[in-house]
Amino acid sequence: MPWLEAGTPGTASSPTCGCAAFSPDRCTCARPKVEAIDAGPVNTADLGTGPSLLEWIDQRHGVSHTSQLRVAGYTAREIADGVARGDLHRVRRSWLVRPDADERRVKAASVGGRATCLSGAEMLGLWVPDHPEVHVAVQATASRNATEGVRLHWASAPAPVSRTMTEEPVVNILFHVARCVEPRDALAVWESAIRAKKAMAATLKRVAWRSSAASEFARLASELSDSGLETRFVHGMKQVGVPVQQQVTIDGHRIDGRVGDSLLVQLDGFEFHSSAQDRRRDLEADARLVLRGYVVLRFDYFQVFFRWEYVVETILMAIAQRLHRREIR
Description:
The protein is of the alpha+beta class. The protein folds into three domains: 52 residues, Arc Repressor Mutant, subunit A; 119 residues, no CATH class; 98 residues, Endonuclease, Chain A, CATH 3.40.960.10. The protein has 14 helices and ten strands. A four-stranded mixed beta sheet has the order 7-8-9-10, with helices on both faces. α6 packs across α7, α7 packs antiparallel against α8 and α8 crosses α11. It is elongated. The termini are far apart. The relative contact order is 0.06. Keywords: Endonuclease, Hydrolase, Nuclease.
């Protein structure tokens, strides 16, 4: 060892300690002592091991309650500096938002709640009908004062949520949809959630819903429909006594619905038939089906949702002419 000289105290040849005599290569008695220095608490942000305050909020869609920031380790000074620079806005005493945060989230924070119902479903990428207001879930004890452009939901949903949370669980979103939205549209939103794998039909049926409407939707929700448009059509037909077989494949082409043996219904939604190429493909498939003896009726989004009486009348007239019982070649 470089700090020990042979024949001097503390060496193997002239040991002054017992451990050196038996295991000189492991003796630490003569090694210099190093004092530990208390440097105080370490700021992990300075070491680059944690996100900055703005990065932390951005990871949460640009909205946060100040208590959550404090729990995450950010100081009141850091928060105040962010507000002073314009990187953060206060929309309520305890809520902070980024300037580019989604308007629906900002409005929800402004009343101390979370986007839910149709607004929450829309942010999840689910099918929703047009709605002019932002739907916000708030605590049951929250103010009943109306806020322009906001529809408040006070009902206690199945999943508990603290007042500082910014995200609404999907089960709560569906709960509020069931209570708030016209039944055919509500069912379409539910099926969209199942199709997008945001929820499982089997799981939804086991939820204690606290709402008869939600319990009924959980029972009705079918995994056969792949769009809210198809759900509304099938459910509406059932109401007038017309059973529809869904997702039939004929001539290599998927059919949205078949009535009887030969009456085929195709539904054109915004997302599923949006390009000219898609449209030409559908027309060619329709022509092949007609040549085989099928009758093809095609309805679009507007007709199913806003001219439902016309759709029903057309289907019933086709059945009256027995177009659903034609011979197929």
